[in-house]
Amino acid sequence: MSGLRSLRGGRRLTAVASVATASAAIALAAAPPVLAASRPLQFLTVNVGKFGSYVNGVNNAGVMTGTYQDAGGGNHGYLMSGSSVVKFDYPGTSGATFMSGINDSNEVSGTYIDDNGVWHGFVRRPGGGFSAVNDPNAGTGDGQGTIAEDINDRGVVVGQYLDRENINHGFVDKDGVFTTVDWPHAGDAANQGTILASETDAGVILGEYIDSRNISHGFVDSAGIFTSINAPGAGSGSGEGTAAAAISNGGTVVGSITDGSGVEHGWVLRDWQFTPLNDPHTGTANGDGTYVKNMSSNGQVVVGLYIESPDAISHGFVVNIGS
């Protein structure tokens, strides 16, 4: 979730469950979602520094990547393995690095902003080297460019690019070959369009589209067959809706909604069982809530951030939801 939604607003979602093949996607489209009771889970708070931090990705070994803020509001990346934390910036930048995902090879995806306000995606290798991820169709003006949202175990990067009209388009980057993926009925005005959040190792894509009323909806793209996702409780006003964060190799989907009061709520969807996922520390004011960012590819660990009103500082979280 994808990991970077908080930078450009939330991605929103409806209801899809275990989606692994094109035929499964068709079958799920006809099934109604079921609201399941939540069970007690142990949320662990992850703070890197004291000025705000997110957890943007986690792999099956429990290694996490995220973003933390400094006293001046600058953003930096980190890798956390147990008690070891490695902090870094994209080379040549300071305070403009945002992380989004990690695979089981400890390759991490992220994005930085250059001096002209243009977004550029990247992959950081386990040894510390960086590779650029820039869609050739991306605009080159302030606020435009390429945003890398996640990386899977095959090294495929997905995300979004903003074109010269500031419209979002999803992309898939396989070894430097870029493919555009757009929801057929996405809005075509500035800040509308399509965002890709996650791709399984089998190539099933999870994403979000923003419609002509600026409402977000999630979707699954399985071999070119699109299934819409709208989670219960999502608001129906501008800037509200469903945000899709990640899909596991087994078909578990996680994400967040923005309700009619502007509060974020997390959720898990398995086999059409929709379960709330909310950090108990979160606030309930506009802009507060639980923002689900990503999930391990085995579908067992979910990460993100929560915001509570007293300090309005973001705090990372990690929670094991089981299999």
Notable features of this structure?
46% strand, mainly beta, 323 residues, five-stranded mixed β-sheet, single chain, four-stranded antiparallel β-sheet
What's this model, at a glance?
The chain has 323 residues and is mainly beta. 4% of the residues lie in helices and 46% in strands. It has a domain at 1-15 and 102-250.
Structure characterization notes:
By secondary structure, the protein is mainly beta. The chain has a domain at 1-15 and 102-250. 4% of the residues lie in helices and 46% in strands. The chain has two helices and 25 strands. The strands form six sheets. The protein has a five-stranded mixed sheet with strand order 1-22-21-20-19, with no helix packed on it. Strand 19 and strand 20 (253-258) form a beta hairpin. The two termini are 20 Å apart. Residues 5-32 have low confidence and may be disordered.
- SSE succession: HHEEEEEEEEEEEEEEEEEEEEEEEEE
Strand order of the largest sheet: 1-22-21-20-19
Beta fraction of the residues?
over 45%
| Helix content range | under 10%
**How large, in whole angstroms, is the Cα Rg?**
17 Å
Shape: globular
Number of strands: 25
Could you give a short account of the major beta sheet?
5 strands, mixed
Alpha-carbon distance between the termini?
20 Å
The total count of helices amounts to 2
Structural class: mainly beta
Mean pLDDT comes to: 89
Which spans have pLDDT < 50 for at least 5 consecutive residues? 5-32
